[in-house]
């Protein structure tokens, strides 16, 4: 089955040129990338604040700090189901602005948190609000662009989305210089206000009137049934969820691995984290340039197999050094795995949605929910297994990689590449 992008038709060219009045191309991409960035920055810039939060709330087990990541994803995942159908019925602008209002409430509650439990509840609310930007960014791009132009826009946005984790811990660390972990949430609040003002002033409603649908449980249920009945959609969404679990397991463990629990990098933690994220950004750029030639299946399958093999190397290195390999060696192997995973995840997402064009909005919401919850659950298991060594991350990568290869084989009825 070919997965190369088809030539742009005359109808697609007309639709691309018939974009509603609003920001130009560069400004449009920047606004949409900022919508996506809210999700990433809300996770990664909090990591340097873990020790301060542990002290403030007398958290007994350092592993419990990882809940600040996982409960955020638990709010983020289910909320995606709501935003897609709502925006198809009410429009993109009002739904996005409401979601940002929810996000702001979560930020404020976190800043006022009197206990660790209160802070976890605030993170759930933050995740619910941030889900709107994740779902609607894709919908708005789909509204305005099709064909090769849409692929180009999404590649640029994904580049920004992957660059954010490189700088987010540094931003969080800079906020701590003001004297309190609360200022990390202040930075999130400022980002939200900038997005509200910019989006509200410059982005018009992009939902085409002829595509507006009544809000109906029956219609949503029918779209979900169609999604669940498609082997390719379910298979590649599951593969994406498993790979997301690797990322979540790494992010949840990163602060302990690089700082308090193992390598004790201190102020250099954001540098190590950024180097690994940089490998992902580089791979995404390469993927956007070669996917037309080699196809999504070939690249994603090769990336997953390579990821699994490097995961086994990661486990072997961990055992060889008693769970504490030299930092440079560990960073090199980890960066290679993050590089390879970036050939899988973007293409898995596209492959899952490829056969569901007729119900793309609702399908995107439902599959986003499914992959987020699956990824958060797998990541939680990896993160909570942290034992002062790099072995849980390596074993998690190798195990989830092998499961992903098996899922791909099931999806493609035994055929790879």
Quickly count the domains: 2
List SSEs in N-to-C order: HHHHHHHHHHHHHHH
Shape: globular
The secondary-structure class comes to mainly alpha
Strand content: under 5%
Low-confidence stretches: 4-19
How would you sum up the major sheet? none
The residue-averaged pLDDT reads: 86
Q: Which CATH class of the largest domain is shown?
A: Mainly Alpha
CATH architecture of the largest domain: Up-down Bundle
Number of strands: 0
| CATH-assigned homologous superfamily of the largest domain | MFS general substrate transporter like domains
What radius of gyration results from the CA coordinates? 21 Å
Number of helices: 15
Helix content: over 70%
N/C terminus separation: 10 Å
CATH fold group of the largest domain: Growth Hormone, Chain: A
Brief digest:
The protein is built from 15 helices and no strands. The chain is mainly alpha-helical.
